[in-house]
Amino acid sequence: MPPANTAIRIRVRMSARPVDEPHRAASQLELLFDLTFVVAVAAVTARLAHDLADGHGLAGLLPFLQVFFAIWWAWMNFTWFASSYDTDDVAYRLLTMLQMAGVLVLAAGVPAAAGEADFGLVTLGYLIMRVGLVVQWLRAAVEDRASRRTALRYAGGIAVLQLAWILRFFLVEKGGLPASSELPIFVCLVVLELAVPRWAERVRPTTWHPHHIAERYGLFTIILLGESVLAASRGVEGALGAGGISGTLVVIAGSGLVLLFALWWLYFLVQAGEGLSDRRHRSYLWGYGHYGVFAALAALGAGLEVAVEQSGQEVAASPMALGYAVAIPVCAYLVLLQVTHALVLARPVIPPRAVLGCVVVLALPLATPWIGVAGVIAVISASCVLLVAVAIWPTAIAARTAARHAGPE
Predict the structure, then answer these.
(1) Which of 43, 53, 193, 228 would you call most buried, defined as having the most Cβ atoms within 10 angstroms of its Cβ?
(2) pLDDT the model gives residue 1
(3) Residue 204 and residue 276 in contact, taking contact as beta carbons nearer than 8 Å
(4) Higher pLDDT among residues 204 and 354, named by residue
(5) CA pseudo-torsion sign 290, 292, 295, 301
(6) CB neighbours (10 Å) of residue 261?
(7) Are 220 and 181 in a shared domain?
(8) Cβ atoms < 10 Å from Cβ of 130
(9) What is 356-389 written as a DSSP string?
């Protein structure tokens, strides 16, 4: 474990950190690393919002999910490696900076990837990130003899797949393969990417820290919620510039804020660290399931942005489509959050029936002709607030009962 002082660590031998290391928390470097993903997520969310406003939401959904996978997978790889091997010395910091540069290049390529299906810059940014990660794993292989085979499997698997991504770019986008082959090749490479960690850790599992991982996922959730607030703020700015303050604007903006706060509350009802500690074998499904949770939050930000914007100016998307642009991400978030929580918890904190009841919000956009976009978002927000109340009510009753039985001291 790296020493806890503030002195500069020029060189620290890379070895597996203890699984039960006390007081393990996200480092300042990890927080700085996350800031680059703020830029990347903002870029992909803004692009989806643009497609929604132009009435091309469905056409923009697939590029959004593809680019968001690259963002999420790069963050995933860094996070789990850092949980096992963070030395915070000079070499580690410089290689992390290289990965941050790759994220920024990827973010710069989002508009071309989502708008023109040109994945050149995204592929380049992904390559830069992966080079830094492969070097980290090679260093772990050299310095941590006990886990050498695992580290070499990671380094080899990542390197081979990165070559495959580059080959895909030249064959599909610059070569002669038909455009119809793009999606099957992408899905195949994604499946192989997801298989690398499982394959590598068959030899010897890495020593990732469950509470550290849970904290890192929580921090990324906050980043995505913050991006949704930022996206809604962009919509408010556009609406104010076009038509000034209106009752519809106030209702949508206020309901959007309450909605995001409720979703934040629901996520942090669970302390996933203990569950991951007891059920490490389910960490793959728990971690991979968060792709849908995170993508839903990012898509929700885009939907809220356009919903707020249309209160002050016309957009090409229909009011019903805007209702679905909010309802679908919310439902996806609730269902996937319930599924991921169930993987690591003995008993669900949120009653499954309550979650299924909230799925009826998928039908709310059908009422848009009568209650408008503002009414749809307000009811969705109220449903999530009710879900929070249902989730915390048993705990509140139990605490009050225990206090009553305890009596005065």
Answers:
(1) 228
(2) 47
(3) no
(4) 204
(5) negative
(6) 16
(7) no
(8) 22
(9) HHHGGGGGGGGGHHHHHHHHHHHHHHHHHHHHHH
Amino acid letter, residue 51: D
Reported as a pLDDT band with limits 50, 70 and 90, residue 2 is: very low
Contacts of 290 (CB under 8 A, 6+ apart): 72, 217, 340
> Is the dihedral angle over the CA atoms 293, 102, 201, 159 positive or is it negative?
positive
Whether 179 and 132 map to the same domain: the answer is yes
DSSP letter string, 192-227: HHHHHHHHHTTTS-----HHHHHHHHHHHHHHHHHH
Whose tokens are 């804020």? That residue is: 257
Task: Flag the least confident range among 114-128, 217-231, 246-260.
Answer: 114-128
Do 119 and 253 form a contact (C-beta atoms < 8 A)? no
- Please report whether residue 362 resides in a domain: yes
Q: How many domains does the chain have?
A: 2
Residue ending a domain, choose from 163, 183, 208: 208
Residues 262 and 187 in one domain: no
Highest mean pLDDT among 114-118, 335-339, 346-350: 335-339
Single-letter code of the amino acid located at 375 = G
Whether 196 is in a domain gets the answer yes
Instruction: Specify whether 51 is located in the same domain as 70.
Output: yes
Sign (positive/negative) of CA torsion 335, 341, 347, 351? Answer: negative
Give the total residue count for the chain: 409
pTM across the whole model: 0.92
Instruction: At 189, list the tokens.
Output: 């490479």
Pairwise CA distance, residues 203 & 95, whole Å:
26
- Of 188, 208, 228, the residue at which a domain comes to its end is 208
Structure-token match 């050498």, residue found: 148
Q: What is the pLDDT of residues 283-305, one digit of tens each?
A: 999 999 999 999 999 999 999 99
The span from the CA of 18 to the CA of 7, in Å, is 22
Q: Determine what percent of the chain falls in helix, strand and coil, rounding each to the nearest 5.
A: 80, 0, 20
In a domain, 6, yes or no: no
Half-sphere exposure of 379 (CA within 13 A, CB side): 19
Residues 182 and 222 in one domain: no
164 within some domain: yes
* Ranges 44-58, 143-157, 299-313, 361-375, most confident: 143-157
The arithmetic mean of pLDDT across residues 357-365, rounded, is: 81
Q: What is the mean pLDDT of the chain?
A: 88
| Residue 307 lies in domain | 212-404
What is the band of 221 on the pLDDT scale with cuts at 50, 70, 90? very high
